[in-house]
Every structure is written in structure tokens, then in C-alpha cells.
Amino acid sequence: MFSFSLIATDGAARRGVLTTPHGDVQTPCFMPVGTRGAVKALTHRDLEEVGAEIILGNTYHLHLRPGDELIARAGGLHAFIGWPRPMLTDSGGYQVFSLAGMRRVTEDGVEFRSHLDGARHVLTPESATDIQARLGSDIAMVLDELVGAEVGQSPFRERAARRKGDCPPSDGGLAMERTARWAARARARIQRLRADPQSVPEVTITNPGQAQFGIVQGGTNPSLRTASVQRTTEIGFDGYAIGGLSVGEPVDVMYDIVAHTAPLLPESQPRYLMGTGMPDDLVECVARGVDMFDCVLPTRNARNGQLLTRTGVIAIKNAQYAEDRTPPDAECGCPTCRRFSRAYLRHLYVAGEMTAATLLTAHNLYFYLDLMAKIREAIVFGTFEKLRSEFHRTFSRRPQQSR
Amino acid sequence: MFSFSLIATDGAARRGVLTTPHGDVQTPCFMPVGTRGAVKALTHRDLEEVGAEIILGNTYHLHLRPGDELIARAGGLHAFIGWPRPMLTDSGGYQVFSLAGMRRVTEDGVEFRSHLDGARHVLTPESATDIQARLGSDIAMVLDELVGAEVGQSPFRERAARRKGDCPPSDGGLAMERTARWAARARARIQRLRADPQSVPEVTITNPGQAQFGIVQGGTNPSLRTASVQRTTEIGFDGYAIGGLSVGEPVDVMYDIVAHTAPLLPESQPRYLMGTGMPDDLVECVARGVDMFDCVLPTRNARNGQLLTRTGVIAIKNAQYAEDRTPPDAECGCPTCRRFSRAYLRHLYVAGEMTAATLLTAHNLYFYLDLMAKIREAIVFGTFEKLRSEFHRTFSRRPQQSR
Questions:
Q1: ipTM reported for the complex, 2 dp
Q2: Global pTM value
Q3: Is B238 annotated in the active site?
Q4: Which residues, in sequence order, are CB contacts of B343 under 8 Å at separation 6+?
């Protein structure tokens, strides 16, 4: 029920198809983040209109509210939120490290306090597997250990976190090892759920065809990355993610680690770069062999008035757009650009209207998804390098100062 | 370019068509309020999908930001906001009385301080006409004087307002007289704009076919209402509104005033009951001869989690809906009900997701617009009284305590 086929390659760039229990996904693909069961400010119909084939749900949020067991009783996440297409869930680990209070990591798992009500929770490789089994996403992620530095903490804060009670390991190597041990436990758990569901009646499996991806860690250390690939692939997953990047490291370092790591992963399985990135990052990491991406940037930036154009980012609230009757991007075919001017969007944004968030988000997501569509086509036609150089010639991630 | 035709009547209920420079509107009609150029939490595509033919814009807000002159330079409000269909604007008077600081009413007009930045502004019958000429709505309203009581102030606050500096009149009769004098000035102004636009070059007329409606005041005093009708119709407008109701008076009093006033208005022109109401109010006032309604209730209530159903209002955040897999209303054909459950909507609402506001607003508006469609059909088929009694048999405006 879950498979991946390579259709074409162009250099290290790959064009493929994910087959999931809820439909196919063309790769390389970008997955909008539907945090709590909706992409912020969008309806599913908006998502379909801008071309989203697969979305991501955050296990941490859904576990806390409304709860994975409630969602399982509703038939799983697809049924609960009314999204019949493919979905991926993360393990919950990232938000535990970035949102929750009082985190304590042990070999068993991570204890934390809910940011909603302070209640104590424990997340283990097994329970993260169970939660995602109840949610019934098409792709579930293993629980990995994020080192302090990997959620954007400075080394000073990392040491402070250790003093607070996080148990070692908290350095890259030991974290990589723990992630590998946790991955083995998650794999064992899902294999038991698949083989003998009656033995775990407390876990309602709403999507028996769910796939499980392992996560390669190792920070910015190529040797650790190599070791992590080895440790993860020897367990054997349905796909592999590269985690622990886009957490504050310089962009060229990130590109180098992806270039190092992606080719080490099995060619016949999908490769997912978590939490990345800006449009130029997508191009550069496709060039290095990545198949799947997720990121909050297009949606979060939209809500903050940062609009993507062919040449880069514009800040819609700038006074220069007050009477700009052109669309956000002159070449964009999205619903927002077909109908609305920068002036109107600026007005709505400055006025604090929710409609601004919807229209800007739809545009930014369309930009990402349209870029992925162009990338897919270019790989098939052997013109990916041409797209890549043309893209860098025109797009700059630095905010535009003038039109 | 603006006209009204009666198609059918059923008792005092009327079925008609407004013809405007931007298209037709079937009446009786309900106009969603697009305050600052968008209906809160909806895109225009959402509006079209739920069946909105005409929306209302608030002149006060648009005058302050982004400004009617900027909008005129963009070609008018239709062009600026990308809504090609009919639009009505109010005069700005209501928000001046309800939102602005430091209001001072004189015979000339009303001085106020912007709620945005405290800047001093003056709104007169002439300037309200000019502003709406720049906005270019299809129907403009005259500036009327709202008595303190008419914006929901208690008599005590009204006296306090008078001490603050509002100049008399502030009692119903004198306010009605002033409204009549202001109406005559507004009519004279629009006639000059129509006849001799070059003589007022500072006013860009973006919609030469714009109609102007007069407003009948008189509070809850039938004699004053009769006098106001006389004073307003003798000036002669393209349509007539009944203002100053749904401001806190008992519902049956409102119905009685409408029953008294509507038949006094010219039969061949549209009758617009401003700021009303709940679904049962729409039915009752159609029964009394009203053609047009606007109200923030369906949209505001949606954002507050109050959902309309055939039997009445439900508060979606109630725990009883946490696992309710039924749609908001089992008989509703709106996009929200076709796809989503009460449980999911409750989850999104409790989680504070903007998507909740969109989905709930779309549903509540569809409920209103679908009710109007059913009313129109019933009038044509002579079954309006049947619809009316059936409606009251099933719908109760009191919040539902159980399913």
C-alpha cells in the first residue's frame, strides 16, 4: 500500500511517485504544514486549489488536543479533518523540544509539560508510534532526539538546559546513537502493530497501510551523518528523513550536509528533508537528491505580510505598495494574483483582516507548489540545471528594497 | 442604470429585482457586511460560493483607511477590492456614533476623532455623498443623525453625551427633522454631481449610475415615522431605508414599526431595513414588506462560535459537540456542511484557528442566503405564509441547550 517509484533523474535530482493508501504524490514535493488539522488561514478547498497533494500534521498538537484517541474514534485524521488525500505526521518530538515546558529526556523517552495546561506527558518511541497509528497518517515519523542546538538554542542555553535536568546525551554523537536506539524501538513497535494488532487493543490502527520513516541525525558532522545513515538503514524503514537541519546553521553548511547524506540513502526509497526551506533551498536540495520537503516558511511568512515573487520577497505593508495595482507576482497564476492587487492586499493586511492571511497564504503556497511542479517537469525533460541557474539568476531571498 | 421591478407579491411580502450598474440583485435579499472591503474571514470566492449577490461596505472605515481618494484613483471600490458585483455603502454615520471618539454634532454635520489615530474629521451630508461617489458603490446612503439611543446608549449615557458637547437636537423628533434637512442636502449634492461633475473636480465619480437611498428615522414613535416618510419621500430618492431599529428595542416593537412604516413607502421602490437581524426577523420583516437587509450577526456570531441550524443556534465550543460527527446542520448544502463535522469545527474553534472563522462564517452566511432564496421562491409560488409558519415552528433564536 505504500511504495515509491523513480520515474527519471537529472544529475542527482530525482523525479518520482509516492503511492500511499490515500493516493499518489508526485515528487519532488512540498508539504504544507497543517499544524492542528488545518493549514493556518486556509480551507482544504484553498489547499486543493493551489495544488497541494499532501499535507503535514503535527502529532504533538493533535495528541494534546483534541487527542489521538478521539481522532481514532472518528476514524482517523483523514476522516476527522475531512482531507482525503495523503498526509504525513511528525513524531511530536520537535514541538516537545520547542514548545513544551519542563522537558526531561531519558533513555526511555521524553517527559514534558503540555504548553496548554501544564499537564505532565511522556513521549516514547513506542507511544509516538501508537499515537500516529491512531491518527492514521500515510507516513509516520519515528521519535528522534533533538539536541538543544537542533532547536535553535545557543550552546549556552544548551548547557543551561542540561542543568535543568535534561539527561545526557546532549552532544551530537550520543544523540545520534540514542536516535538510532529509539528508531529500532519505533520500528519494532510498528511491526508488532502491523503483525499482531489484537495484541495491542489499546491502539486503534486507523490506517493499516501507514508507512514509517526513519530520521538521520548527526548535526553538521559528516562522519556522524554517515554513521546515522548506517544505523538507520540497517534497521530498515519505508523512507528516510534528514533531520536536524535548518535550525540555524549557515545555508551552505546545510547544502553540504545534504549533498553528503542524501546519496548515502537507499536510491529506491524516498528522501525527506525536514523543516526546509526557502525556495532557493528547495532547488538546491532537489539538486542534491531530496524528494520531499515541509516548511512553515511560506505560510508563516504570508501571515507576516512577506510575499514571494519571482525576484524575491516583498513586505506588503510597505508604503510603496499602497497604490500598486499589480498583482503580488505578475507571472503567478494563483487565485490571489488573478484577482487582487498589491494595494488591496496591503490594505487588508494593515487593517488586520483575516482575509489577508488567507489570500497571502494561498499565494505563497501556490508559489512553492508551482515551483515544485516546474522542478518535476524540468527533471523529466533533463532541463533541471537550466531551471536551477535561471532561478538563482532571478530570485533572491533577501527582502526586496525596491520594485 | 438603477431600477427596481416588482415581480410578485404574496400578502405584503414582495419579490423583486434590483438592477444596478454592476448587475442584478434578486429581492428580498440579504447583504453580507464587507466592513473594510472584505467580509471578515472570507474571500470573495467564498462569498460567491455561498450565494452572495451584493455586499455592503462601511464608508467610515474605508474613508479613514485606505481612503476614498486612493480608492477613486484605483477606479473605485469594485476595482480596488476585486468585487465586480453590486455593492452598497452606508454613509459612515453609524460608525461615527459607535466607534469614533469625541463626537460633536452640529447642524453642519458631525465632527469626530478617528478611532485609528485620533485625527479630527468632519462628516457632512455633502461630504458623505462625495466620499461614496469616489467609492462608487451601486447604492449610497444619505448621512442621517443617529440619536444616542439609536446606537445602543442608555438614556443616562445619552444625557452624558449631550453634556460632552453634542448639540441638540437629541430627541427623536428633532433628530428626525435634522435627518430630513440633511437628506435634502445629500440629494442636492448628488444631483449636482450627476448633472455637473466638472463643477466638482475634487470628486472623482467612479460609478455614474450610483443610486442614493434616503433613510426614514423616528425611533419607535409611529407618528414620527409617518412624518419622516413624508419628509423623505417628498425629497425623492432611488430607494428608502428604515433606519434606527435593531438598536435594543424589543423585537415586537421593531416588527410593529416596520409594519407601520414599510407600507407608507413607495410601492415601486426598494425598501431596506438597516442592521437587521436574526433569521426570524428576516422572515417577519419580509412579511411586512421589506426588500433588503444587512446585518453583522451571521458573520460576527460565526466568529464567536455561534452556528445556525434549522432549529436554532448552537454554541460549537460546547463539550457535547467534541465527537459529533454530524455536520453543523444536517439539511444544509453549504461547503462547510458538505465536508466537515461539528467535532472538527469545534476543535478548530477551540484551537483558535482562523480556518474555523472561515468555515463557520461561510455556513452562517449560506444559512441566511439560502433562507432568502427560499423566501423568494415562496413569494412567487404564493406559499410565503406556509414558509413563515413552518419556520417559526422549527427555528428558535434562543441558544440550543441540547441537540
A1: 0.92
A2: 0.93
A3: no
A4: A66, A70, A74, A80, B321, B322, B323, B324, B325
